[in-house]
Amino acid sequence: MKNYLIILLFSFTTVLAGTLNIATAANVSYALPQLIKEFQKTHPQTKIQMTIGSSGKLTAQIMHGAPYDIFLSANMAYPKKLYEKGFALSKPIVYARGALALFSTKKRDFSQGIALVLDKNIKTIAIANPQTAPYGIAARQALQNASLYSKIKKKLIYGESVGQTVAYAVTAADLGFIAKSALFSPKMKQYKEAVNFKDVDPKLYTPIAQGIVLLKHATDNADAQSFYTFLLSQQAKEIFKAYGYSVQ
């Protein structure tokens, strides 16, 4: 009888303390801790695990059976692909629109805008890999539309995700094209606008509409479904705005 009660209590605790797994594009990882903190005010027993990477690589993992419940992508193309191939329960929805920033740890003449990449003192420029990271696509597109890409192509070093690109921009590169959201993380707040960074002209790249899907692994996971709903709420939108995203 004791063993039976222990099993019942353990099962009840397990139900209360739900777990969900999120696959998130690196640019969103800066805002997610605050989003999780707010969600857990009403769901204190829910455990949320994050896997951070480039949208392309996370999509490949999901298609190979990775047990994620929610996918926060840096574009709409990857979530759409997952939905069309039957890996998602929900159609892709735009949860936020990201922005691209030009960044340096050193004081630079950002009045030049994107033309700063031509500066003779700029030897290396970090961007995310355009093959797997939407922010890399946006950076390359901005350079191409400004007629600068072919002139500075040899200066480029590539991060596997925009998160790794931020690391390169801080430690190894003279300049970096990063997600604006990264500038709101505690480690980056020391850097100043017009001194260390400037927004890339949004007219130079296609708007970065970022999509979310609830994945099939979450079919019986009420906590995952609740967090998915929360991420589309007005409360979550205000947090995204605080991290440099635009929302509707």
From TrEMBL:
Q: Give a yes or no for keyword GTP-binding in this entry.
A: no
Which gene is this protein's source? modA
The molecular function terms of the Gene Ontology recorded here are: metal ion binding; molybdate ion binding
Against Gene3D superfamilies, the record matches this protein to: Periplasmic binding protein-like II (3.40.190.10)
Record carries keyword Metal-binding:
yes
Q: What is this protein called?
A: Molybdate ABC transporter substrate-binding protein
The record's annotation in InterPro entries points to: AvModA-like_subst-bd, ModA, ModA/WtpA
**Superkingdom assignment:** Bacteria
Q: Which organism is it from?
A: Sulfurimonas sediminis
